[in-house]
């Protein structure tokens, strides 16, 4: 199993946890604003958090599969060329095109 496969669920878990915590915070805020008892608010917020984590995980997995698919498609369409030795013809042409320094009879005259 390669490193990319091992780490592929991490973004989904981060999205799921973020989604669940935002839902928990929203449920707390709304429940307290309405004036419900604290125990009821915490109980309901916890239930909302537990229900939203799988939803966030599913959204995260779908997003990760889309990203992985797009990366693989890009790699297939744009392969990295194999390491090749430097082209000596181009190096020689670059050296011939560069101005040479040194004294010649034409420069002195």
How does the SSE layout of this entry go?
Layout: H1 3-6, H2 10-34, H3 38-77, H4 88-97, H5 105-108
What would you say this structure looks like, in words?
The mean pLDDT is 82. The chain is an all-alpha fold. It is 76% helix and 0% strand. The protein starts with a helix and ends with a helix. The chain is elongated and about 80 Å long.
Quick synopsis:
The protein is an all-alpha fold and 109 residues long.
Helix vs. strand class: mainly alpha
As a percent range, the share of strand residues is: under 5%
Instruction: Quote the distance from N terminus to C terminus.
Output: 73 Å
Global Rg: 31 Å
Which descriptor suits the 3D outline? elongated
Largest sheet: none
Structure summary, number of beta strands = 0
Q: What is the succession of H and E elements?
A: HHHHH
Number of separate helices: 5
Mean pLDDT: 82
Q: Low-confidence parts lasting 5 or more residues at pLDDT below 50? A: none
User: What proportion of the residues is helical, as a percent range?
Assistant: over 70%
